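Minimal example, chain plus LNCXM5UN.
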Amino acid sequence: MSEPTVIRVATASPYDVVVGRGVLDRLRGLLPAGVQRVAIVCPESLEDLLDPLAEHLEGLDAMVLQVPDGEEAKNWEVAAACWEALGEEGFTRSDAVITLGGGATTDLGGFVAATWLRGVAVVHVPTSLLAMVDAAVGGKTGINSPAGKNLIGSFHEPVGVLCDLALLDTLPRAELVAGLGEVIKCGFIADPRILELVEETDPAALTPDSPVLRELVERSIAVKADVVAADLKETGGAAGHPGREALNYGHTLAHAIEKATDYSIRHGEAVAIGCVFVAELAARTGGLDRDLVERHRAVLARVGLPTTWDGSGVGADFDSLLATMAVDKKARGNQLRFLVLADLARPTVLAGPAEDDLRAAYATISGGAA
Ligand SMILES: NC(=O)c1ccc[n+]([C@@H]2O[C@H](COP(=O)([O-])OP(=O)(O)OC[C@H]3O[C@@H](n4cnc5c(N)ncnc54)[C@H](O)[C@@H]3O)[C@@H](O)[C@H]2O)c1
Ligand SMILES: O=C(O)C(=O)C[C@@H](O)[C@H](O)[C@H](O)COP(=O)(O)O
Ligand SMILES: [Zn+2]
């Protein structure tokens, strides 16, 4: 048990993100006053985590919506099964959804909460590092479409987020490392102290009970909280800042890679590759300093994240990735838009880059394959 840190997400409907170890007792306080019934969206593989959570829901009527694990849950059929179950139980607007799981579960459960009765309250209890530092915060919810990742969804903010670092004790190491992909992303776009902490720390020491990991979690959530408070719906930031799109750093290629692999690559791993790609793109198109480009490779590789990908394992070439990137949500008409850095912690939008530049940047991460 540790004293929790509370990070306020100061949007028009503000809410708290509570971070600490052994802090599940804070759950009740995050639920809306007067709630009598909750639906807990949780993958079967994480059902062992339900009992510790249920201890803090005494007196409430609780139902469990069991969903498939990971990306398998982010589709229309699973959402429809959840809606059906809520309908059978007569779930009303005074009831609340709780999600318990990784980012795929918070995305799906958040989407169900956003759409049932046009929106019921949701509290996220993320269980992966990636979901704590990113997916559970900020209100993006969604499912995948055959055309690509997260193409169906809505903005629906949680009423609270509970990040109990003790839940990470069972998280496989590769999943924790994947979460560091989004943490490092926050370092490049907004908070360079994150990069220093990763560079100064033995990666093996980044365990769920480490104070450095906790600081990385809190700093990443603070980055996300600031960005979404300024531009919740990704309509644009204040002068000189791209707004919420900054959080999409590395994601344009990442989502195309995820689709190409049929979601067998972890999201955080794909983001790591995508960050190196946009760093190389920025070097070609905006003269981004080479040292900063190499810093991307070094810090990501240091924690064990991939920095190269050539698509050969899944038969994906650059043209097929380009076709997927055409439906990225940042695209406007037939113009692709990428988040790049003008400098460290200075994200900016690169609209309509030349195909030659995209191909050349891709060649640097794919060992020349195009
Ligand atoms: N909405 C957003 O703002 C946002 C932000 C970032 C990522 N995402 C989405 O989040 C998803 C990635 O999240 P993720 O990396 O958490 O993936 P995930 O939800 O698939 O979880 C990864 C794996 O870890 C397991 N797991 C999670 N917690 C565990 C625990 N405590 N113990 C043991 N195993 C555990 C899961 O069962 C799963 O097998 C992607 O779909 C991505 O698009 C959304
Ligand atoms: O919250 C955001 O905004 C982000 O872009 C965070 C990303 O890490 C996350 O993967 C998000 O789901 C991507 O958003 P999308 O709009 O490209 O689907
Ligand atoms: Zn992401």
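The first strand starts at residue 5 and ends at 9. Residues 102 and 129 are 8 Å apart (CA to CA).
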